[in-house]
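Take a look at the protein record below with the fold in mind.
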Amino acid sequence: MVKTQYINSDETIFNDASALLRLNKNILLKGPTGSGKTKLAETLSETIETPMYQVNCSVDLDAESLLGFKTIQTNSEGQQEIVFIDGPVIKAMKEGHILYIDEINMAKPETLPILNGVLDYRRKLTNPFTGEVVKAEPGFNVIAAINEGYIGTLPMNEALKNRFVVIQVDYIDGDTLGNVIKEQSQLDDDNLISRIIKFNEDLRTMTKQGQISEEAASIRALIDLSDLATIMPIERAIQRTIIDKLEDEREQQAIINAVELNF
């Protein structure tokens, strides 16, 4: 049963992603931070009742983080032996589960080519640590997420990008956002939720005009401030969840102005 479902007024996003999984296509979810890409992947996993292994990419990601590592264990006879502990990629392949690669363009370009055979029609790889040839079991699928233009991200290699079908995931607003707030936060005050939605519209406008960064208008931040609004004044909730995260004083002041206008 899906506990917290991904919601978007554009139903083609979820429907197309579901269809792509049935076709065994690799999906690249492209959109700003906090727009619900991970929630979409989780909902897909729960809907098709297939567990998901997650890889969080960073500049420190290496082959061991993806594939696994060797270690020493004591066997049933009390003897020590070297064994290989499967990483998330190999586990997902062997078990026929979903592999979710978050912020794939945060990884160093030289790290990811090891996945080329996993991402094409072969659906297999040779483990460089053991020599084992691993072929994915039926049900194995790959979903990746990408945030373009953020600090620490790199242009995605075209050969890698060509192995995916891209789905654009943008922020939600209006009634859809209201439903998400009610479902995913503890706030149930309809009047306050309506004001938060209007506040979010102002944030989105300022984002499009370049006055504030996209992170300031993320759905994740709105869910947090909605929770906090149940235990403190809305102005302080916004201060804690949005304003204090920003370092640019001009961005902070722009949001303070929006708070004064809406609340």
In short: The first strand starts at residue 27 and ends at 30. The chain is about 40% helix and 15% strand. The radius of gyration is 21 Å.
